[in-house]
Specification:
Elements lengths: L9 H6 L4 E4 L3 E2 L9 H15 L4 E3 L4 H11 L20 E16 L2 E5 L8 E13 L5 E13 L22 H21 L8 E5 L2 E5 L11 E5 L3 E4 L6 E5 L3 E10 L3 E8 L8 E5 L10 E2 L2
Parallel strand pairs: 1-3, 1-4, 2-4
Antiparallel strand pairs: 4-5, 4-6, 6-7, 8-9, 9-14, 10-13, 10-15, 11-12, 12-16, 13-14
Length: 304
């Protein structure tokens, strides 16, 4: 029952950055009370869908408690700061996904208005509805980069369905063939798309990873479709452009050109290149692929 529309193929996996994310247990504010632990159950199902897309590195939820504790210690002046990693780099988590369940149950139209029904009395005129508010938080800054409401509603044509969920496991095959299960699946797929729109469209940018014995080590290898003979223009570290009112990132100004390199060797995750021109190379400088026959200058402003 996973979301198929946003799954990366091999070419897309090589093109885009895979952000590392962690999904927290949802807060359950739905008025209906069920036997299921909805907060944990929905988080687990969302993780399964996010993994299926091949667009993220997803941290196991069991590690969240230690990460959150370390983040709190990192911001506490009582703890030694020397040598402590910056918040946001702890275990390489870039984003936290949180959610609040606002509806989970059956509703019907009563005198022109929607009314929540008790789980034992819904019938042929009712709908299964699942809704949540979703938040994506950048760990390093603490900024909420996306907030959206996701909702799904499925017609339930079964009258007198009292007790049909009593012996059913949340997220199983049988569950997803019920109206509430189909509504849950539809809502989760919407959530996956919202997360993708917020953080999964940043293209991979090869950079200088290390300088060893007059050789330049580049981040990215066969996994990023880099090949022997590829040439790159090297530029100084880009600068972020911020909106002075909102503080939002508007884009990046690409730095000045410092030279050009050619790839000599490619491994699975990194490549080795030699300089063709220039000598001011530093770790972190960005590389822009060029056509050896047509040396185009890359655009000075990029936005991702």
């Amino acid at each position: 029952m996973g979301c198929q529309g946003v799954k990366y193929n091999a070419r897309q996996e090589a093109k885009y950055v895979k952000p590392t994310i962690a999904v927290m247990s949802f807060e359950n504010r739905a008025p209906a009370h069920m036997k299921w632990q909805l907060g944990d159950a929905l988080a687990d199902q969302l993780i399964d869908r996010l993994l299926h897309t091949n667009r993220y590195v997803v941290l196991e939820r069991q590690q969240l408690r230690s990460i959150m504790a370390e983040l709190r210690r990192g911001n506490d002046r009582r703890f030694r700061q020397t040598g402590r990693p910056k918040p946001g780099y702890l275990k390489h988590v870039q984003y936290l996904v949180k959610g609040t369940i606002t509806d989970f149950g059956h509703v019907a139209t009563v005198e022109g208005a929607w009314k929540l029904l008790d789980w034992g009395i819904f019938g042929s005129s009712s709908y299964a509805i699942v809704a949540a508010t979703l938040y994506v938080v950048e760990v390093q800054s603490g900024q909420v980069v996306a907030s959206s409401s996701v909702e799904a509603k499925i017609r339930d044509s079964e009258a007198g369905a009292k007790g049909k969920y009593d012996d059913m496991a949340f997220g199983g095959y049988t569950f997803y063939h019920t109206p509430i299960g189909r509504a849950t699946s539809k809502m989760l797929d919407k959530a996956v798309n919202e997360i993708a729109d917020a953080i999964a469209e940043r293209q991979f940018q090869p950079k200088i990873a290390s300088l060893i014995n007059n050789q330049i080590v580049i981040s990215g290898g066969r996994n990023r479709r880099i090949k022997v003979g590829d040439e790159y223009e090297v530029r100084t570290t880009s600068q972020q452009v911020f909106d002075p009112d909102s503080g939002d990132i508007l884009g990046h100004i690409v730095g000045e050109s410092t030279g050009r390199v050619r790839v000599l060797q490619v491994t699975e995750k990194y490549s080795i290149a030699k300089p063709l021109s220039g000598n001011q190379y530093e770790v972190g400088q960005a590389l822009f692929k060029v056509d050896p026959k047509r040396a185009k200058t890359p655009a000075m402003v990029s936005s991702y």
